Amino acid sequence: MERLKQRVELAARALESLKEVAAIEKPTAIERDAAIQRFEYTFEAVWKAAKQFLLDREGFDVASPKRVIRTCREVGLLDESETAHALEMADDRNLTSHTYNEQLAQEIFLRIKQHVGLLDKWLNEMKNKAKN
Fold first, then answer.
1. Which of 22, 44, 49, 70 could serve as 7's disulfide partner, Cβ 3.0–4.6 Å?
2. Rounded distance, CA 98 to CA 100, Å?
3. Do residues 108 and 96 touch, judged by C-beta distance below 8 A?
4. DSSP code for 61
5. Helices (H), the chain
6. How many other C-beta atoms lie within 10 A of the C-beta of residue 112?
């Protein structure tokens, strides 16, 4: 359980740093790229916290981000529409290595603002269920 607590705290800190840059209305290229980098590590921290939650609290040992997302739906951390969004978010995370493509980088930055809400909700669901 201690490992879960650590992962959730790490994910919460990462999410706060992402919120900071996602709120920028007209980012410079550097700010946009920083937001994308923060999105990468925040997504990683949240799905890994979910992976630990599923292992510790639900007894599921799943390895990939998309399988973790689907299993979170099965245990009630995410609903159907949130699961679909989270799977799209995983796709965006996989595309971030192509941010040298200016248009793609801009598109991902714009979607990050939507992703922040889901990451926040997902993390809060884990925190609430871990308390019980």
1. 49
2. 5
3. yes
4. -
5. 2-22, 29-53, 65-74, 80-95, 102-131
6. 23
Cα–chain center distance at 70: 14
- Given a contact cutoff of 8 angstroms between Cβ atoms, the answer to whether 79 and 124 are in contact is no
Reported for 94-100, long-range contacts at CB under 8 A and 24+ positions apart, including other chains, are: 96/36, 96/37, 96/39, 96/40, 99/33, 99/36
Model pLDDT for residues 92-113, shown as the tens digit of each residue: 999 987 667 888 889 999 999 9
List the domains of the chain with CATH numbers.
2-131 (1.20.120.330)
Q: Which residues contact 29 (CB under 8 A, 6 or more apart)?
A: none
Query: Cα–Cα distance between 5 and 7 in angstroms, integer?
Result: 6
Residue with tokens 């996989």: 94
Number of other CB atoms surrounding residue 120 within 10 Å: 16
DSSP code for 77: S
- What's the mean per-residue pLDDT of the chain? 94
User: In whole angstroms, how large is the CA radius of gyration of the chain?
Assistant: 15
Predicted local distance difference test score (pLDDT) of residue 51: 98
